[in-house]
Write a structure and sequence with these properties.
This protein is an alpha/beta fold. The protein has a single domain (11-219), classed as 3-Layer(aba) Sandwich (Rossmann fold). It is built from ten helices and five strands. Strands 2-3-1-4-5 form a five-stranded parallel β-sheet, sandwiched between helices. The termini are close together.
């Protein structure tokens, strides 16, 4: 994929895929390696979220004033993306590998899925493009995980988490949401990551060892390109 601009910083890889594709299990295994850490747009330290909100204030005001219709969840994604960048720059800079389980690709895709009307506004669309441009040089690899819809649905039905937001979805709703995210991922990756940074891995056989080995080989290749 060519040389990284700053080989001294951590190798940053985001795992991307619809719910049930195996992201969390793979992220847990990868982040258990020496020198590796796991991060996400969710559950960020509150001080960083607060600072991210302050730093994003011009964008937040512009979105609110210019559109008068941007929802709170979209504004929250603005703050989370800012906080995640601060986390990478300040607290994770000495790590060897940062595994993002729902990072910028997910957050920008989420806006595409749940805020298409907002993206029709010029201010929101410009904010979206700027965030994609900011994150593009920070992602060394994107691992796109997916599996056929029947397997996704079966895995989601087998989850034991009572607070799973998809637990009340019908099979049709799960399939439709997965399709929406697939389209959004494709759109985001066109803006954020060149094709040579994106690795697609099927998770049909649910072999976690195989996935860990495949991602490890990709990351070794990336290190050799430094």
């Amino acid at each position: 994929m060519g040389e990284r601009k700053n080989a001294a910083r951590p190798l940053v890889v985001e795992l991307v895929g619809p719910a049930g594709s195996g992201k969390s299990a793979l992220a847990q295994r990868l982040s258990a390696q020496p020198g590796a850490v796991r991060a996400s747009v969710w559950n960020l330290p509150r001080p960083l979220i607060f600072e991210g909100a302050l730093r994003s204030l011009p964008a937040l005001v512009g979105l609110c004033w210019g559109t008068r219709s941007v929802s709170w969840p979209i504004l929250a994604q603005v703050m989370r993306l800012g906080a995640l960048r601060l986390l990478l720059r300040r607290r994770l800079r000495h790590a060897r590998l940062v595994v993002l389980d729902e990072g910028p690709v997910f957050a920008l895709s989420w806006v595409c899925v749940f805020g298409p009307a907002a993206l029709g506004n010029g201010r929101t669309a410009r904010w979206w493009r700027r965030r994609a441009a900011e994150w593009a040089p920070l992602l060394d690899r994107v691992v796109l995980l997916d599996t056929p819809d029947p397997i996704l649905t079966r895995r989601l039905r087998g989850r034991s988490k009572r607070d799973d937001e998809l637990s009340d979805f019908t099979d049709r709703e799960i399939v439709d949401l997965a399709a929406a995210y697939r389209g959004a991922f494709e759109h985001v990756l066109r803006h954020l990551a060149p094709g040579d940074r994106v690795v697609t891995l099927p998770t049909d056989d649910a072999s976690l060892d195989r996935l860990v080995g495949a991602v490890g080989a990709v990351l070794d290749e990336t290190h050799r390109g430094d």
